[in-house]
Design brief:
Serine Threonine Protein Phosphatase 5, Tetratricopeptide repeat
Length: about 300
Amino acid sequence: MTMLWLSIGTLLLLALWFLSLPLRRARAIHDWQQRFEADDHAEAQNLAVYERRLSALERARDRGEIDVARFEESRHELDRNLLEDTEARRRMPLRRPVSGRLMIPLVITAVIGASIIGYRWQGADGDLALYAAQQNALNTPGASMKTLVGRLEEEAGTQPDNPKVWSLLFPLYQKIGQPGQAIGALERLIELEGRRVDLLAQLAQIKFFVAGRSLTTEVQALIDEILDKDPREPTVLGMLGVEAFDDGRYKQAINYWGRALAGFGDNDSAQAIRNGIAVARQRLEETANGAERVTD
């Protein structure tokens, strides 16, 4: 966190150095411009050219090479060209080098303010505070899982609209045996992130186990919503397999788990499903053998 702010401060100082450059160089540029204008003899050269051409016209008139009307026309054209060239080269008076000096501090202040406001608005200030809280809890001697939960709960009170806080809290609540708190955190996460299938599936799973592995009306409503959006959602299919297995519907459990197996990328979860399928097949075989013995 400290390193980040140091980096931001360094970049800001660099930007301020560039912004203040015009103010620091104003005197030197002003003096250079003054010297340039003082050494500029373009107007004198234009006047000399004008006088030479006028003299040539007068000599041509005196020799009778052009009449008076042609002379006057040519002289008026020379006068007009000189006037236009003079107007084009007319310079505005140089301003004092300290002119506009108040604008630079205003721009610098605006840049600093915009940077801070922009970072607060679009940056990840809350996520950084959350990370710092995690590191502080994990690095505290003798810290436990409950210590981390306590620090995250403080962050949840400070930034309740940050979904990352709740996404960290709800699995931790499960680990420390507080399913009710886990449900509350997950429901808050769903409010912030929307009714995503993966979040709804985890909510249904927690409520399923809290209800003693039974499909309550609330759990069934969640399952229906999830399967309507994604019929192959593995968490829900796995949960339905558990319910069918507990009810002795081993064939149906195998079917659910087989469909769920295709969606599990986690090797541990996939292996647990395979083990469940193996047990269900064994139970199914035992049930079939028992039925045959009864028939015999």
